[in-house]
Design goal:
The complex is a heterodimer.
Chain A lengths: L3 H4 L5 E8 L3 H12 L4 E4 L6 H5 L15 E2 L2 E2 L11 H15 L3 E2 L4 E7 L2 E6 L2 E10 L6 E2 L13 E3 L14 E5 L3 H12 L4 E5 L8 E2 L2 E2 H7 L13 H6 L16 H6 L3 E4 L1 E5 L2 E4 L3 H25 L22 E3 L5 E6 L3 E2 L18 E2 L2 E2 L4 E3 L16 H23 L1
Parallel strand pairs in A: 1-2, 1-8, 2-5, 8-23, 10-19, 11-12, 11-19, 12-15
Antiparallel strand pairs in A: 3-4, 6-7, 7-8, 9-20, 13-14, 16-17, 17-18, 21-22
Helix pairs in contact in A: 2-4, 2-10
Chain B lengths: L13 H13 L11 E6 L2 E11 L2 E13 L14 H23 L4 E9 L22 E8 L3 H13 L2 H7 L11
Antiparallel strand pairs in B: 1-2, 2-3, 4-5
Chain lengths: ~425, ~190
């Protein structure tokens, strides 16, 4: 489908605000800027929902149920609120939102640099130059798949893939697979690849264990109702830690399936500790597997305790409390695997993602390459970032979580533009 | 949580530790430490080692005094047993590190410790070190640490303290993860 409306968007010029990225966060920002009559443009390197189109594996479904798929002025209208969207459904949802909100999206426009310019910013693209008083970075949290240092020492005849390159088990050579990382990505890939007939080993570091369903409801119902998802970045003990937490071990599926390390063990996956290094072709795993599993079990139980307390305090009628079996590990888990003996043919780096700010020529990155911001207000006047984990709230990285953040930040941006105007006048 | 109201004294100055954490986040170069030991062979399998000086916070530091340790082998190895075996020292290091961590984490979480005792078992097949079987490694087959902890807290809270202590323990990391070791001679 060709959307002629988007062709009317200017390809260059001056505007109040440039929004970088037409995913759910950038489009939600655009919606709220429209509400405040802020002149703006949304620059998108590919198409609307580009990362969802190009950087997700085939079987992936959202970790959050459909009732949580909502954006400012827009929500899921289907007949399965408890279901989970497939990638084509997510793409349609976000494209529908772009059409509904009439966002001024300039597609196939890659930002090549953002720099300070007089009182505002100069945004260079492959398609012209923009000048704006403010910039909202909505280019995503998962642009680059992070690979550990050990990735440099993998023997040449072992294939390696990032989750961005992985589509499905059909693309893998026959033989063993090492999945490195035990977040939602690592567990989902280990599960599907083992089921496709490969012998899978999963390297497990610190992780977040969470049941899909608890006391008769999806876990997201309780996270939502108890207010946990609304916890603010300035209320938590250690915001750096909270922002770096791996995604919880969840999978979205029509059968509401539980996915944890025990279910992987049941289907034949071998658990190893965190991958620490590769020495002369031998992968070495940490001996801390027992402890990282114990930590995750204890933290899950603390979460369930807090849900139980809330249910009791609020006298909610629901199924009774339950506790899940502790994570089972072998008495002596594997400490090393010889990568040159042919037992492992493919390694998948499910070791997290990071944003790409290589185009950002404004000194706002810390020594670890993270953007310096206070709840999304970047450490440069008129610059904002949206759609990062725990940006302002626990829910910030979820589709539904972006609305409150964007409302706060567009209010701040609107005030900023007003102040600019007064100073200029 | 009544945590903030409880007076807890485990003898750990948590404010100082948290202050150091904050200061070193701002000045990561000051966090670069070098730990040192020196040793001298005495006789047979007996070696005397000592520690005193170390580097940290950007300058040379030292302990309040020099500490000296003897390592040797027991009499069943036809040695004179003038000290612990070196492998037992590794267990001493692990116990010291994990237990210090337990005290620090408990204090931070406002939990009073009444007693913390550990026993450590570390089986080893010495066919490795004797060169009898090259398939047997020299080191431990595994290490089991058993804590007996009496504290004013639930079982889960105590388990969480012990887990957090492992997560932040240098010696636990040194033992569970590989480290490059460089040994130079007469340089």
């Amino acid at each position: 489908m060709i959307d002629f409306r988007h062709n009317n968007v200017r390809s260059a010029g001056t505007t109040d605000t440039v929004v970088i990225g037409a995913g759910h966060a950038g489009l939600a920002t655009s919606f709220c800027l429209n509400e405040r009559s802020v002149d703006h443009v949304v620059l998108e390197r590919g198409e609307v929902a580009n990362s969802w189109r190009k950087e997700r594996w085939d079987s992936l479904k959202l970790l959050t149920p459909n009732w949580q798929s909502r954006l400012p002025g827009f929500s899921y209208a289907g007949d399965d609120p408890g279901g989970f969207m497939s990638m084509p459904e997510v793409i349609d949802f976000i494209q529908d939102y772009a059409d509904f909100s009439e966002a001024p999206v300039k597609t196939n426009t890659t930002v090549t640099s953002v720099s300070k310019h007089s009182d505002g910013y100069r945004v260079m693209t492959n398609n012209g130059e923009w000048q704006a008083d403010s910039v909202v970075i909505a280019s995503g949290a998962c642009n680059v798949a992070v690979r550990p240092k050990a990735a440099e020492s993998i023997p040449k005849d072992v294939k390696t893939l990032t989750p961005h390159q992985y589509r499905g088990p059909d693309q893998l050579e026959p033989g063993g697979v090492l999945v490195v990382g035990a977040s939602a990505t690592g567990l989902q890939l280990a599960d599907e690849i083992q089921r496709a007939g490969h012998e899978v080993t999963i390297a497990v570091g610190e992780h977040v264990r969470m049941p899909r369903r608890y006391r008769g409801q999806d876990i997201q119902v309780w996270l939502d109702r108890t207010g946990i998802l609304n916890e603010c970045y300035d209320e938590v003990d250690d915001v750096v830690r909270a922002r770096g937490l791996p995604s919880p071990q969840l999978i979205g599926s029509s059968e509401r399936k539980l996915l944890d390390l025990n279910s992987l063990t049941d289907s034949g996956v071998r658990l190893a500790g965190r991958l620490m290094g590769v020495n002369n072709g031998v992968a070495q795993f940490s001996g801390s597997l027992g402890n990282v599993c114990a930590l995750a079990d204890l933290k899950m139980n603390r979460l369930l305790d807090s849900i139980d307390d809330w249910i009791m305090t609020h006298s909610v009628l629901c199924d009774g409390a339950e506790r899940f079996a502790s994570t089972r590990i072998d008495e002596s888990p594997t400490l090393s695997v010889d990568l040159s003996d042919g037992s492992i043919r493919t390694i998948i780096w499910a070791t997290g993602f990071r944003p790409d700010y290589s185009w950002l020529d404004v000194p706002v990155l810390d020594r670890k390459g993270r953007i310096r911001h206070e709840g999304g207000v970047v450490d440069a006047p008129g610059m904002y970032v949206v759609g990062l984990p725990m940006l302002r709230r626990r829910k910030s990285s979820f589709i539904h979580g972006v609305e409150d953040d964007v409302r706060d930040l567009t209010a701040h941006l609107h005030d900023f533009l007003g102040t600019e105007l007064r100073l200029a006048g | 949580m009544s945590a903030v109201l409880k007076e807890v004294d485990n003898g750990v100055n948590v404010e100082a530790l948290l202050g150091a954490r904050e200061a070193l986040t701002e000045a990561p170069e000051a966090a670069q430490f070098v730990w040192r030991a020196t040793s001298e062979w005495k006789n047979g399998t007996h070696t005397q080692s000592s520690v005193n000086r170390f580097f940290g916070l950007g300058e040379e530091q030292s302990h309040v005094r020099e500490y000296s340790y003897d390592t040797d082998h027991p009499e069943i190895f036809a040695s004179e047993d003038k000290g612990s075996t070196p492998v037992e020292f590794v267990l001493v290091g692990l116990a010291g590190c994990l237990t210090a961590g337990i005290a620090a984490v408990a204090t931070h979480r406002a939990i009073q410790l009444n007693s913390v005792k550990a026993t450590i078992d570390a089986p080893m097949d010495i066919q490795g070190i004797l060169g009898i079987d090259s398939d047997v490694r020299n080191g431990f087959d595994g290490i089991t640490v058993k804590y007996q902890i009496d504290a004013d807290a639930s079982e889960d809270d105590i388990a969480a303290i012990v887990a957090q202590s492992q997560k932040r323990s240098a010696v636990f990391d040194i033992i569970t993860n590989p480290t490059n070791v460089t040994v130079e001679v007469n340089k």
